[in-house]
UniProtKB/TrEMBL annotation:
It comes from Gadus morhua (Atlantic cod). This is DDE Tnp4 domain-containing protein. Its main location: nucleus. Its cofactor is a divalent metal cation. One of its GO terms (molecular function) is hydrolase activity.
Amino acid sequence: MSAPKFDDLLSRVIRYLPDSHQNHRNPIGASQRLAVTLRYLATGIGLQALSASYKMGTSTVSGIVEEMCSAIWDALQGEFMAFPSRGQWQDIAEEFWRQWQFPLCVGAIDGKHVRLRAPARSGSDYYNNKGFFSIALMAAADANYRFIYVDVGAYGRESDGGVLGRSAFGSRLAEGNLNLPAPAVLPGTTTPSPYFFLGDEAFPLQVNLIVPIQDRKRIYNYRQARARRVVENAFGILAARFRIFGRLIDCQPEKAVKIVKACVALHNFLASTERARYMPASFVDTTADTGEVQPGEWRQARPSQRAALVREQLADYFLSDAGVFPHQYNVLRLGTDQ
């Protein structure tokens, strides 16, 4: 984020912040509160380390982050997370056709687990099938990697299909009440089709929600997976730019929801107003002339993938002539041919 963009963001959120002069003689300025919050979201630094670097109390920093995250969402969601009109749905579909050659698509839907400290007395509600505690982030993205809608806070144990079905968006989707454009013909044909979202196998097939076909139609599945990469990229960019998603969020679910919503709003804000800086062309997946997908830089920016690469390099090194330890095979009783 550039300095002018920081000032722009500050001017938007400041009106949603409570007047700290009422409670403090020497209040912390709004610009410093915003800087503290952005550093927390962008780096994933712990609250204790963050409070030490700004010479504030941990509880003070925690309160600043929660208050500012709420203000960021309130300030940005009306403009950058507004629900599309019928004309805007058509614009989204045109972009999907132009960029991803998939007709009448108005968004790609997927879910993401946001790692969370185990809430007290929550049992297994937040324990997901991946083996950790989380809240669910369900979202739809447009062709330009911006989020059209998000639903945050469902129990981690719920499936993607269950989270979508119980959300207000999912209910309106199933009932056909999203104000989507009237059915149109597929390009170059006279075949009519409704507008729809793309999902993976975790979602139920609906008129306005199209999922892969099992065991056949390889061309269709390839084309659908290619178009669905936009939501995978949107999540990837979000996690790469806001490293808070790369660590366990050490707070209660209600506060974690505010943090996630602030990051989503900032993602759309920066993707819309400072795209070249926030996600340059090389940062996202692209398709070569041969049809092969070229991975974007956000994939290399993920700490887990870098760590996995380092581990694989070490594993190979320990098996090589240069890195072998004379007694390693004897100790493990595997034999020197392993």
